[in-house]
Specification:
233 residues; mainly alpha; two-stranded antiparallel sheet; two-stranded antiparallel ribbon; 7 helices
Length: 233
């Protein structure tokens, strides 16, 4: 299917977009914060993507693309960094609304951050020769520890719970992109640059990459909202 990657992006964002106008969550009213977060985070990840694509860490199967490129990346890949954050932050906002209690907050969130960061740093230090693994795990660990020791935000418990839910559509979308339902993958990887551990067809690194992508968006999104509240006081 020539436009498969484009259709995945459209499908991913369609339902969250339709529910953005639900008066309970008021997601559309927060677009000014959301799209600034998407732009700033996307700039970082697009640069990363351009470098890794140029190095052959991953690449894209033209069979499933429109073949429109911007700075050597498919149009669909640019749209990915809009559709995925938009939908995932929607899930995060929905979880905040429907689950009032912060089940993973406080010391639980701190413990998760410490254990996860330690594990990522250990694996990265052992596999510094694997670029996808090392870069993804080191950056994610660094950002998590920045949250723990510098930002001291109070929403990490809610983020972790939301990310557990996000992993459900993650496995569907990323599974399709990595070939679970197609003769060939949409996105291909140089397995000499990752651990070679797959969750079905998905490299384990993708789950950590996704965590960093969504957490960066949530961090900027929450910061901008908090900043506006402070300015109004």
């Amino acid at each position: 299917m020539k436009y498969l990657y484009l259709l995945i992006n459209i499908f991913t964002i369609s339902i969250p977009f339709l529910y953005s106008f639900d008066g309970r969550i008021n997601y559309a009213k927060k677009w000014k914060f959301l799209f600034r977060a998407i732009f700033l985070t996307g700039a970082f990840f697009i640069l990363w993507d351009i470098i890794f694509t140029a190095k052959g860490i991953w690449w894209f199967n033209e069979t499933y693309l429109t073949q429109i490129e911007i700075i050597n990346l498919p149009l669909e890949e640019w749209l990915f960094f809009i559709a995925i954050p938009y939908s995932c932050v929607f899930i995060y906002e929905s979880m905040k609304y429907f689950i009032k209690k912060d089940y993973l907050g406080g010391w639980i969130a701190d413990s998760i951050t410490i254990v996860l960061s330690a594990a990522l740093l250990l694996i990265a230090s052992i596999h510094l020769d694997l670029l996808y693994t090392a870069v993804t795990f080191l950056l994610t660990a660094a950002f998590l520890l920045t949250h723990l020791f510098m930002f001291r935000t109070d929403y990490m418990g809610r983020f972790y719970l939301s990310y557990l839910i996000i992993l459900i559509p993650f496995f569907i979308v990323n599974g399709i992109l990595t070939g679970i339902a197609t003769p060939e993958p949409v996105v291909l990887y140089d397995n000499t640059q990752n651990l070679g551990i797959r969750m079905g067809t998905i490299p384990v690194e993708d789950a950590i990459y996704g965590l960093l992508l969504i957490l960066m968006n949530v961090t900027i999104y929450e910061y901008l909202q908090e900043k506006e509240k402070e300015e109004e006081i």
